[in-house]
Amino acid sequence: MPGNPLTDPNWASSLADNIERVVATVRDKTTKPLLVMYRGAVFGVIGVCGGIAALVLFTAFLTRGLQSILEWPLTHSDAVWVSYLGAGVVFGVAGLILMRKRLDSTEATS
Hints:
Helix content: over 70%
Number of domains: 1
Largest sheet: none
Number of strands: 0
Shape: elongated
Order of helices and strands: HH
Strand content: under 5%
């Protein structure tokens, strides 16, 4: 009787292979998409934090570089406040542009 597991010498290995195939299929359909989603969220948070840190450092380096350049024609204290004024103008204009875009997008949805 070929269907009898007691007389089939390969029934244990074929049963183990079937169980392994079913478990792998279930894992591929459930665990792997969640793992990809979690990895994406973690790497996204790390990327955002790294981007913010890079932006802050770039702004600090740019301000300090501008102060060094402005120290040639100006005194140190004048170069510092002129560089801060320049950074304030740049950030103020950027804020005004973003606020204008915010108002445009809310008016479109209303």
